Amino acid sequence: MVDKLNLKRVLGLYGISAKMDLAWLLRDTKYAIAVIIADIIANLATVSSVFLISVRFGGIGGMSSNEVLFMMAYSTMITGIFIMFGAANNFRVSRIIGRGQLEHMFIQPVPVKMQLATMGFVPFTGGINFVVGALLLVIAGERLDLHVTPQWTLMLFLFLLATMTTIVARSYLVSTFAFYAPVAAEEISTKAIEGTWLLSTFPLSGMPSFVQIPLLTILPEGLMAWFPSLCLLGRPPLGLSAYYPMLYAIILATVAAAIFRKGLNYYVKSGSNRYLPYGFRR
Amino acid sequence: MYKYYVTARMSAQEQTNGGILYSLPTILLKICTLIPLLYLWKTIMSSGAKAEMSLEQMLSYTFISSILADILVVKTAATGWLSEGVLLKLYGRPFSVLGQLMAQTVGGWVPMLLMYSMPVLFLAPLLGVRLIPASPAFFLSLLLCVSLGFAIDFLFACLCIRLRNVNWLIDQIRAAIIVIFSGTIIPIRLLPFGIGEILKLQPFASLGGSPLGIFVGAGDVRETLLLQVAWNIILWPAAIFAFKKSQERMVSYGG
């Protein structure tokens, strides 16, 4: 019998994940702190390489070094949200499919999509990147004399949501391969997410259009940090609407949902030889 | 030596077990990262920014860094195999564990060299990249870089053994260190605030950034080679000693 879904139940599920995260932090504090520090160092190293270039050369392609810092802060916040909500491979869903762990989710009295939405919530150990990103955003905003209004804050929230939706939708889209080839495609979502992470930190300002346009359409790396940052700074690039990332996210999510559902239908009929009763893959 | 060759060959063949199409996403992603990075440098350098390197040097630096990425910053399977239980199995084979890791790693380079590096070389003239090294010392520097890379990798594996298999954590910190300190993405001499002068002395700078600097003709060849030799002399005995001492502490999962 599937649980009735209401807001209280959803918050309760998030609460369970958060409690487990806190339990890990308190029981194995040394290791948890080491993981947090490693996360911060790894993320800052990736974004700081581009920032250091901008400092060295006084900006990149018309963006000042403070604007590049703003973009890096946005990217760090995205990483923070990703880690905070996606720590249980629920965003890298091809791992769950490829390892035959979807079956464990089918037998739970909670819809699969709700499990995937709530299972990876780690606010205590995973939220620090978001905090660091927010701090950097404040610093960059002060350096740029940014005028923060409630409308601007709402736009920031919408852009963060659109970027996360794009990342997750793309991951789920490519993870559909895992339904048909669980061994070969087990790590495909990792490739889709992490393989292009460095690319998403590049400011595309000043680059030719044959580089910019594919990175705003086919591979949406330009929508991960560069485009939203410029919109938040009041300069939507390329004459596009500031709502373009939201529109892209909605379209991609719709397509990804349809294709993922098709793959799931195939999976529940054909099964998986990767399933093991004790949880891990062969 | 034949057994090392066979190990390398099997490692190369393993990469293509899923068919060449399995490697296609990796190749496409590498190309999709290389081209914007080249244009990033074009954008920066053509805006009149003053740098110690010319645009052609910078483009060549970035291009060669991409096609030799696996070789410039060596990463063996040691830390991953530690947690999977595969590392312990190497002791059952009639040759050196470190030798097996090295052979396996070198073999693993071959498919990407054939499927990505060599085809992409044909793009070089279109991208304004020079393919002839400024000095033949590049090849010696590359050898020293590979050697040092193995030594550093084994030291990280020993660290992983000592810290009881926190290999994910070590991999994260290691990747972060390599990004900034090796000079493979940003030449160390281009780092701001003059920190390049200090960072060029640390061991990671003798990895990818050193042969790349020699390739494009930036930096002192003699000083670079001396630093690489010195770090090899220091770190190889340390790596072998650390690995010998760490073996007894090895706890491996999986199997």
Please estimate the helix content of chain B.
55-70%
How many distinct folded domains of chain A?
Answer: 1
Q: Looking at the structure, what is the overall shape of chain A?
A: globular
Note poorly predicted spans of chain B. none
Quick one: biggest sheet of chain B? none
* SSE pattern of chain B, N- to C-terminal: HHHHHHHHHHHHH
Measured by residues with Cβ under 8 Å of the partner chain's Cβ, the largest interface is: A-B, 38 and 33 residues
The major β-sheet of chain A equals: none
How many structural domains of chain B?
Answer: 1
Mass-distribution shape of chain B: globular
Beta-strand residue percentage of chain A: under 5%
Instruction: Provide a count of the helices of chain B.
Output: 13
Residue-averaged pLDDT of chain A: 89
Q: Name the structural class of chain B.
A: mainly alpha
Whole-number mean pLDDT of chain B: 87
Number of strands of chain B: 0
The count of β-strands of chain A is 0
Features:
heterodimer, A: about 280 residues, mainly alpha, B: about 260 residues, about 70% helix, globular
Any overview of this molecule?
The complex is a heterodimer of chains A (282) and B (255). Chain A starts with 6 loop residues before the first helix and ends in a 12-residue tail after the last helix. Chain A is globular, with a radius of gyration of 20 Å. In chain A, helix 2 (29-57) packs antiparallel against helix 3 (65-85). Chain A has one domain (7-270). With 282 residues, chain A is mostly helical. Chain A has helices spanning 7-27, 29-57, 65-85, 93-98, 102-106, 112-118, 123-126, 128-143, 150-175, 177-180, 188-194, 209-212, 226-232, 244-270. The model of chain A has no long low-confidence stretch (mean pLDDT 89). Chain B has one domain. The longest helix of chain B is centred in the C-terminal third of the chain and has 27 residues, at 221-247. Helices cover 69% and strands 0% of the residues of chain B. In chain B, helix 2 packs across helix 7 and helix 9 packs antiparallel against helix 12 (209-216). Chain B is built from 13 helices and no strands. Chain B starts with a helix and ends in an 8-residue tail after the last helix. Chain B has helices at residues 2-14, 20-45, 55-67, 69-72, 78-84, 86-89, 97-121, 124-127, 137-162, 167-181, 195-199, 209-216, 221-247. Chain B is an all-alpha fold and 255 residues long. Chain A binds chain B through residues 31, 34-35, 38-39, 41-42, 44-46, 48-49, 52-53, 55-61, 184, 188, 191, 195-196, 198-199, 202-208, 211, 215, 219, and chain B through 18, 22, 25-26, 29, 32-33, 35-37, 39-40, 43-44, 47, 49, 51, 166, 168-169, 172-173, 175-177, 179-180, 185-186, 190-193.
